[in-house]
Every structure is written in C-alpha cells, then in structure tokens.
Amino acid sequence: MSGYAPAEAARRSGFSLDTLRYYEKIGLLADVGRTAGGQRVFSDDDLSWLVLFRCLRDTGMPIAQMCRYAQLAREGEHTTDERRALLERHAVRVEDQMRLLQRQYDHLREKIRFYERLPGPGPEAGQPTAAARPGS
To answer: Which residues sit opposite 4 in a β-bridge?
Structure first.
C-alpha cells in the first residue's frame, strides 16, 4: 500500500486540501489513515475514491447523492443494483446537460460566424457597433 501526504493527495486528485478535509468530515471519504503524529495519509484506495468523486462532482452530482453512493458501496455487494441505478439516473441528467450544452455551443459558434462575415475592422479595433448588441 502506498501512502500519500495530504498535499500529494490534493495534487493527484485535483481537489484542494480544504475539499479533502470537508469530504472526510462529511463521511464521503471514510477511514483515511493517520500517522503516529496524527497527519492524514491517503491510500491508493482513497485516491481511487477521489477520482470517482472528481468525475461525479465535475458532472454535477450533488454531494448528498455522492454520499449516498459511497454509503451504499461501503454496505457491500448487496447494494450493487441501487448503486447502478443511482449512476444511471445521474448519467441521464449528464446526457440532458450535454445536449443543452451542444445546442448552446452551436448557437455560440453561429454567432461567431455571423461576426466573421461582417465587413470592416476585426475585433481588435475595439469599437462597438450596432451589430455588436447581444441580440444581433
């Protein structure tokens, strides 16, 4: 088993030290080891959890659902169906958000193409025009 100091765990996970402490405090990250001096030592297993938590957080899963997932996982194999269902519901929400973002991205790219077709000086001129209004 490898052990990682809090700063290294933060670096590897992309979470701040404050977030790591918070996740431990609320029970999302459980049973983090300690040195004889009381300093937290993160295991490879802890880092695996943090990778999952990064994915879930980055895709918008609320903390309460992340906690529920972690609780179910710690309860054992008999919770696999409920864990899968929780992740499937989240995946549907992520897919909906991706579709919305794609529509908004397409709209944004169309607006950029609109400005690229305008005659005159480029954007570096810094002079607003009537066509630069948000709805134009």
So the answer is: 42
